[in-house]
Amino acid sequence: MKHLKTLVLAIALIVGSTSFMNAQSKVAHINTQELVAAMPEYKAAQAEIEKLAKTYDTELQTMGTEYQNKIKQYDAEASSQTKEENQKRMQEVATMEQSIRQFQGQAQQDMQKKEFDLLKPITEKAREAIQKVARAQGFQYVLDSSQGQGVILAEGKDLMADVKKELGF
């Protein structure tokens, strides 16, 4: 009878530990920012964004130079102009300044939209590769270990090498 109790207890412990082990989820992590930055498509997108930024910078510098020259010219000629003409010139300068600010705001919006449009397919491709690798290796959860994502300890499986292999680089 004592052997039977021991056998039942041993079976209960084995079943319990097996259930506990099956209840645990497999978790992995990957630094998605590092992955996306390493992708060749990202480098091409960054080059395109930088090219657009230089175009906007050049245009802004041209507008700024024109604005500064107009102010210098109007300041030099202010004493020889009528009060009404000086008022008109001040209004013109204010309008120029406003148009520069509007252009700056529009350029910033265009840059953000362009960056989003270029990076969205890249991040989607990375996400799909991460999911494919994680499923193939039996992971139920993959945490983003990028800086500031809330992962404090990442000792589990790092999928970076496997996902890079999946993406072909």
What would you say this structure looks like, in words?
This protein is mainly α and 169 residues long. Helices cover 76% and strands 6% of the residues. It has one domain (2-167). It starts with a helix and ends with a helix. The model is unreliable at 17-23 (pLDDT under 50).
Primary descriptors:
169 residues, mainly alpha, 3-stranded parallel β-sheet, 3 strands, 76% helix, rod-shaped
Please sum up the structure shown.
The chain has 169 residues and is mainly alpha-helical. Helix content is 76%, strand content 6%.
Task: Itemize the secondary structure elements and their pairings.
Layout: H1 2-23, E1 27-30, H2 32-38, H3 40-77, H4 83-136, E2 141-144, E3 157-158, H5 160-167
Parallel strand pairs: 1-2, 1-3
Helix pairs in contact: 3-4, 4-5
* Overall average pLDDT: 84
Multimeric organization? single chain
Shape estimate? rod-shaped
Using DSSP, what is the number of strands?
Answer: 3
**Helix and strand succession?**
HEHHHEEH
> Count of helices?
5
